[in-house]
Each structure stands twice: as structure tokens, then as C-alpha cells.
Design goal:
535 residues; alpha+beta; Herpes Virus-1; six-stranded antiparallel β-sheet
Length: 535
């Protein structure tokens, strides 16, 4: 066999070099001990071991058995090669040339993998990559191996006599400078590790957010499915009621018309009988008998009463003989209105939530009724100012908060023409932040911050306001009440006009990060707003 072919057979698939201390796996494939150890260390992080060559899997880390036969073949092959093909030979392999894998700075000797095993492991025996020029590691002044001494530790990690400079070619660099560079690199590594940890935490947060979004989506999917199931049920019930009413009216009028037809047919048969009798009398040969039958008066009746009956039938037919489409339409419209009202109000919300206003949060000129349902803008109430009370704007919030679920409450707006209705976070600013010509920064007024969502009436105009953004609604409000519908998990606040019909005015969509208070504001003197519903 040619030398090149034999060399190819003796190359490790891991490092692509001639085997060094070859070992064999249970599957029969051979590798350098160092190469396969490195692969198994990497695989150990995942707990799954396999042969890099054939992919055979092992339940545990496989034991490495030295292939003595292959080792002898490698040594014999290397002994036949010129020294230059051996690379850097082992200092202690004097009978044949074996490539070195490490260089001991203390012993100033190159070591093959076998001699590396029995080499001293003490700290002063510092190992480095094999080199053909050990003199490069010596001080040009003292001709001894140079030392690198850490500025952070008292012990030296390399043996030398020269602690001042390292000369490499024409460059001279202080060991202290190298120490500083190493220190900077360690700092950079620490920063990179910190950044990596932050990224890992960010990934975890994103994954957790994704999980929550999926949970919310599952809840919403079920809610929508239930919603449309209920819609279909109510739709089917309404369809059945309307069709039943149409059938009832059809049957009623059909019976009426059938009765009329039967009466007319009876009268028609009587008329035919009399006509036939008159015809018989006209053909009789004894004319003396005709006057006697005519005297009975039956044949002389011309049917004027029948004409009156027919006119009565016609009038009854015009009155009761057709479908009452108006009544059918009323049943249909009312049924649809009931379905829509149920959906808008929340099919799964049986009644309005009980809202109580927090007098401690109201400004000094807002009066709260004894039942804590009505807020009225009046003079100074001489109420002591508390950390919870608003300072400037005539507003008040609810006692309790909402941090989950779907709820609605209604506000009677007949007592005011200048108001705001909505929700806000507990962390809304309570003091300071008056409106100024220069801007609207840091306001406590609901709507003019990122902690509140409101609907506003200003005379005859209506607006929705959040975080200083004011958007006018084009709808004309016809009802006396506004319904506020909160779906906390869905991040939705909706406002409805409880007129006829009930209409959705606007929906905010966001992601709530705090619990929510109901909130009211009144601008007109002696104007008032009342919370409706609840017990």
C-alpha cells in the first residue's frame, strides 16, 4: 500500500491529523483521545452521547479504550517518516519521532500525549502549545523564559526572571500593559456575560408574555364561540316565533275565508235550486198551478239579502282577510332589539356592578350624596384635604377597583351638560398639574394623562380623550344614560348610548397594567351625575 494511502487511513476524522493516542468506541470507530474527549464534553451538556462517525447513540458516556494495535501501527508509520513530517517531535520519544501536543515552559520540553499523561501537574509546570522556537519565550536580556505576573494575584503563572518587558520583533510591550489589557478583557467578558443574561431574561419575559397572550387568546376564543352560540340560539328562537306568528295569521285567515266560501256556496246552491224550479214551472202545461206556487213567496225572492251578505263578507275580508304585516314586523324588530341589547350589555353579565363613589378622592367643591351614588358640583364642602383627594379638577373616583373580569355600570347624564365619564389607574396624579397656556404636562385631570380613558360631553358635542388626545364623536346621543363596559383581560373600555336603539359609541383597546377605578368629572355649577344599577 502506498505511503499516502496508509497515512489517509491513519488520520483522525476529528482533527484530520495522524492519530495521537488512538482510542476506540464500542461501535468500532477510532479517534484521538483528545478529539473524542472534546466531542463527548460538548455532548454531555445535552446528556445525549453518540459516535461522531456513525451516529450510534450511547445511554452513558462511553468508556475510551486505547487501541494498542492502531497505536503501534501509528508509531511504526511515524518512524518511517522524515523528521520534518512529524511536526514538532516529542523530546522524550528518542527511538522514533512522535508529534508533541504540549510544551512545558519549566522543563523546556515538548510532550507527546503519552508523556503528557505522566508529566508533573504542579503549578510551576506551565504548559503551552508546542513551538519550534522556544527561544521566543525567553527574555532577550537574560535568556530565560519570561514570566507574566498578574496585577490582581500575588503568584506568577509563568516562570521567568524578566518582569519588565516582552520583546516581540521590533515591538516592546510592558507586562503591566499586558496585565491591564487582560483586566480590560475580563471586564469586557463580564459585561458581555451580563448582557447575555439580560438577553436571556428578555427572551424568558417574551416567552412568558407569549404564553399569557395564548392563554388570553384561548379565553377570548371560548368567549366568542359562546357568544355566537348564544346568538344563533336567540336567532333561531326569534325565527321560530316570527314564522309561528305568520303561520298563525295564515291559518286564522284561511279558516275565515273557508267559512265565507262555504256560506256563499250554500247560498249559491239555493239560488240554483230556485232557478231550476222556476224553469220547471215555465215549461208546465197546466198554467193554473203556477200562481199557487208563486203565492208562497219563496220563488219570488230575488236575493237582495244575499247581496247584503256578500257586501258584509267583502268588508270583513278587507278588515281581517290579510296578514298583519305590521304586527309581524313589530315582533321581528323587538326580538332583534332584545338580542342586540343582550349582546351589547354583555350576555354573561346579569346586572350592573355596584359602584360607590369615594368622597375622600373628591375635590373640595364636589358633593357626594349619602348613598355615594351621585356627584354634584357645588361650593366649598369644607372637606379636609387628604393624600387621596384631587386638588384642582372637580372629579371623583370609585371606592373599589377592577383588576379582572367583565363589568358594566351606567351613569345618568340628565343632570349635567359638561362632564367626563371613564376609568383611571390608582396612580393617577392627585396634586398639581394645572392646565396652562404653555402645555398640558403632568395633569391630574382625567383624560389628559396616560393613566385614564374617558368620554366627554361639552354642551352638544361629545369626545373621547386619552393621554391628551381628544377625538370628537359624530354620533348624536339620544339616551339619558351612558353605559361603561369594562373587559379587563381583553384590555377594552366601551361606551354605549342607552337610547333607542342602544348604540356603541367608542371602544378603547389597550393592555392594562394596574387596577382601574371608575371616574367622574363635572364642569357645570350644580350639575350632577348619578351612578345607576347595583344594590
Amino acid at each position: 500500500m502506498a505511503s499516502a494511502d496508509l497515512r489517509k487511513l491513519l488520520e483522525c476524522s476529528g482533527c484530520q491529523n495522524i492519530y495521537t493516542d488512538p482510542v476506540m468506541l464500542d461501535c468500532g470507530h477510532n479517534f484521538c483521545r483528545v478529539c473524542i474527549d472534546r466531542v463527548l464534553d460538548t455532548q454531555g451538556e445535552s446528556g445525549a452521547y453518540s459516535c461522531p462517525e456513525c451516529g450510534e447513540k450511547f445511554q452513558e458516556r462511553p468508556a475510551l479504550h486505547q487501541n494498542i494495535t492502531l497505536c503501534n501501527i501509528v508509531q511504526n508509520f511515524l518512524s518511517t517518516l522524515p523528521d520534518r513530517e512529524c511536526g514538532i517531535p516529542c523530546t522524550y520519544c528518542i527511538h522514533f519521532s512522535v508529534p508533541a501536543v504540549k510544551f512545558c515552559l519549566l522543563c523546556e520540553a515538548s510532550l507527546c500525549s503519552n508523556h503528557l499523561k505522566v508529566h508533573s501537574k504542579s503549578q510551576e509546570h506551565v504548559l503551552s502549545d508546542p513551538t519550534t522556537s522556544p527561544e521566543d519565550r525567553k527574555s532577550s536580556l537574560h535568556k530565560k523564559v519570561m514570566e507574566y505576573k498578574s496585577t490582581e494575584h500575588s503568584e506568577s503563572v509563568r516562570v521567568s526572571c524578566c518582569l519588565i518587558t516582552i520583546q516581540k520583533g521590533d515591538q516592546v510591550e510592558s507586562l503591566n500593559e499586558i496585565s491591564e489589557k487582560m483586566k480590560k478583557m475580563r471586564n469586557i467578558k463580564q459585561k458581555l456575560m451580563t448582557k447575555k443574561e439580560e438577553m436571556e431574561k428578555r427572551v424568558q419575559n417574551l416567552q412568558e408574555h407569549q404564553r399569557k397572550v395564548k392563554q388570553k387568546a384561548d379565553v377570548e376564543i371560548k368567549r366568542v364561540i359562546d357568544l355566537f352560540t348564544e346568538l344563533r340560539r336567540q336567532h333561531d328562537d326569534l325565527e321560530s316565533r316570527v314564522l309561528s306568528e305568520i303561520s298563525r295569521q295564515e291559518n286564522q285567515h284561511s279558516l275565515l275565508i273557508s267559512d265565507m266560501v262555504q256560506q256563499i256556496e250554500t247560498k249559491k246552491d239555493e239560488l240554483s235550486r230556485r232557478m231550476n224550479r222556476i224553469e220547471e214551472l215555465c215549461t208546465m202545461t197546466d198554467p193554473l198551478s203556477v200562481p199557487q206556487e208563486l203565492d208562497t213567496g219563496d220563488l219570488c225572492d230575488t236575493g237582495d239579502e244575499d247581496n247584503e251578505d256578500i257586501e258584509t263578507f267583502s268588508e270583513q275580508l278587507q278588515t281581517d282577510g290579510d296578514l298583519n304585516v305590521t304586527q309581524i314586523s313589530q315582533i321581528l324588530r323587538k326580538g332583534l332589539a332584545d338580542v342586540i341589547t343582550g349582546i351589547i350589555g354583555g350576555i354573561y353579565i346579569q346586572e350592573a356592578i355596584d359602584i360607590l363613589l369615594d368622597a375622600n378622592s373628591a375635590t373640595h367643591n364636589v358633593h357626594i350624596s349619602d348613598d355615594m351614588k351621585t356627584a354634584t358640583l357645588m361650593g366649598n364642602q369644607n372637606r379636609p384635604e387628604t393624600p387621596e383627594s384631587f386638588q384642582f379638577y372637580p372629579q371623583v373616583i370609585s371606592r373599589g377597583t377592577f383588576n379582572s373580569g367583565r363589568h358594566y355600570w351606567e351613569v345618568d347624564i340628565r343632570g349635567s351638560h359638561y362632564w367626563k365619564i371613564g376609568v383611571c389607574y390608582p396612580s393617577i396624579q392627585r396634586k398639581g398639574g394645572e392646565r396652562s397656556e404653555g402645555g398640558l404636562s403632568g395633569l391630574q385631570e382625567i383624560g389628559y394623562n396616560d393613566k385614564s380613558w374617558v368620554m366627554e360631553r361639552w354642551n352638544t358635542d361629545y369626545f373621547v380623550i386619552h393621554d391628551h388626545i381628544r377625538f370628537q364623536l359624530l354620533d348624536i346621543i339620544t339616551g339619558d344614560k351612558i353605559r361603561v363596559l369594562l373587559d379587563y383581560e381583553a384590555g377594552q373600555i366601551s361606551f354605549y348610548d342607552l337610547g333607542d336603539p342602544i348604540r356603541l359609541l367608542h371602544t378603547y383597546i389597550t393592555a392594562f397594567t394596574e387596577p382601574l377605578h371608575a371616574a367622574l368629572l363635572i364642569w357645570d355649577d350644580y350639575g350632577f351625575l348619578t351612578i345607576c344599577g347595583g344594590n
